[in-house]
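Anyone have tokens for CHAP domain-containing protein? Sequence:
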Amino acid sequence: MFDGPLLEQPRVKERILRSTIVHLANIEIGTMEKTGHNDGGQIERYLATVHLKRGQPYCAAFISWVFSKAGLPKPRSGWSPDMFPPSRISKLALPANLLGIYFPEYGRIAHVGLIAGTKDDWVISVEGNTNVNGSRNGGGVYRKWRQIRTIYKIADWVSERRGGP
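Reply: yep, here.
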């Protein structure tokens, strides 16, 4: 019986897709706002992916842009809480999964980033609309290190078992 490789194929495709998504996000590290007001050519391209105008927060738009460039139709939203519907919640900090940061002053997830990897009790992420201090409304696209305990939710938009590609 020759069914082993067929059973493994979706896992290989998923790993390649996750790697592609992380690569596309990594390329954007260092993209900076033009005037510090959620603006500039590339920032406005992120915003356009979700039909938002210059000046709007773009952490979720950045995620939507990355997934779009990877050829995926979803997620597509400029609203960070939309990135965490119950059907997409995961406990796994896999590359290309999304991390949600809860802000008590808003009573909701108010920032989203893309998981690039993990090391010990840390998640390494790529995040739009942040800065070196970790602001949710920052100055560009950065690589961040976040302690796992600071992450409120994780969402998986890639795995087939979660309704992905």
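The first strand starts at residue 89 and ends at 90.
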